[in-house]
Amino acid sequence: MKRNRILRAIQAALLLATAAGGASAQDTVRLTREDRQALSATAYEPHGNACKAVALISPGAGGSATGYAYLGETLSGLGYLAVVVGHPESGRRALREHKRDSGGMREGLADLITDPLAYRGRFMDLAAARRWAEARCPARPALLVGHSMGAATVMMEAGARNLVGVRGADGYRAYIALSPQGVGPIFPENAWANLGKPVLTITGTRDNELGGASWQTRTEPFRNMPAGCKWLVVINGASHLNLAGNGMARSTEAAAAQAITAFVEGLERGDCTPPRRTRGVDIEAK
Prior knowledge:
By secondary structure, the chain is α/β, with parallel strands linked by helices.
């Protein structure tokens, strides 16, 4: 009953945030990365008197800094300076160009999510956003969150072996990946066997892969990771776009927000015990 009340409270908060234009103070910022490329980001100021740490959010292919408000709101509500980072090489314009060059949306997406230059740009984007954010919130350490192509970015940074030739620095305290990819054109077999830090992965039973593979392939990273504060959350009925935060699936957003809240609060307590299963949400941990 208590957890049902928490879920309802999160749902109500998300609905209120949308109606009010956002419960957290939001700032649109312009950043410049090391190669002088400009990019945009949206910063959600932390609730409370102090900033606990920075949380960076990496959108999916074709996404922008103006999306994923539910993730920004959730993390800012936990006391983090949450920053949704725009990615010029894999944002809306880049997706349109890949679609045009490849002959269709599906083909364009497949080309974009396997483009090494796009991932290298993403890492520079995240570095620029982190420098900006940590100048304002020097608390350590930071969290890295991502959806879809952003989830691939998260896994690469965490140390997953990949087929695009990108190597991450594993420079974050913990990782949250929504709609992570399984074995395929981005990640080979056994790609996640060396991920040692805490990782939360979230998917849904309608979150099928781009090529049509079952949503269950998105559980492969969790299965392959070594034990040690690893969670897998499966939301019944949730699709890929539901998790993208387009505002059309409040129950999915609320369930994801609840899982993220439990995971982050557990990290802060030093306790990675997952919450009990709630209706429509399965959680595994190791």
